[in-house]
Amino acid sequence: MAELLDDDTIESRLPEHWHLDGDEITRTYEFDDYLEGVAFASEVGEIAEEQFHHPEIRIRYGKVDVRFTSHEEGGVTDQDIDMAERTDALR
Ligand SMILES: C[C@H](O)[C@H](O)[C@H]1CNC2=NC(N)=NC(=O)C2=N1
Question: Could you tell me which residues belong to the region Disordered (predicted)?
Fold first, then answer.
């Protein structure tokens, strides 16, 4: 079981454009059209399956919100930071 990170540690390790929102980290990505966002969400799903660590993804026209938390630990862990970095690497 991964260790929960405290808010200061999270803030210091969050990649650019990511925000801490309660027990979750989140980023909104922007796209030129809806289907680009859908394709991106699918790619995020692929790495989530590879890493077995799954985000909440909200798709709307031109924007996709990605939200990570470690459900079993009840907060943000290294896995969530790692997944944020992997998600950014898709762009
Ligand atoms: C039941 C539980 O969700 C699963 O064991 C795995 C799969 N994906 C997961 N994803 C996330 N974000 N947190 C988890 O704790 C987690 N656990």
Answer: 72-91
- In which region does residue 56 sit, left (phi positive, over 0), alpha (psi from -120 to 50) or beta (all else)? beta
CATH architecture under which domain 7-88 falls: 2-Layer Sandwich (3.30)
Of all protein residues, whose CA lies closest to atom 1 belonging to ligand 1?
Answer: 72
Atom of ligand 1 nearest to the CA of 83: 12
Across the range 56-77, mean pLDDT stands at 98
Instruction: Provide the whole-model pTM.
Output: 0.95
Residues 6+ apart with CB under 8 A from 8: none
**How many Å lie between the centroid of ligand 1 and the Cα of residue 63?**
24
pLDDT digits (tens, 9 = 90+) for 18-57: 999 999 999 999 999 999 999 999 999 999 999 999 999 9
Ligand 1 center to 83 CA (angstroms): 13
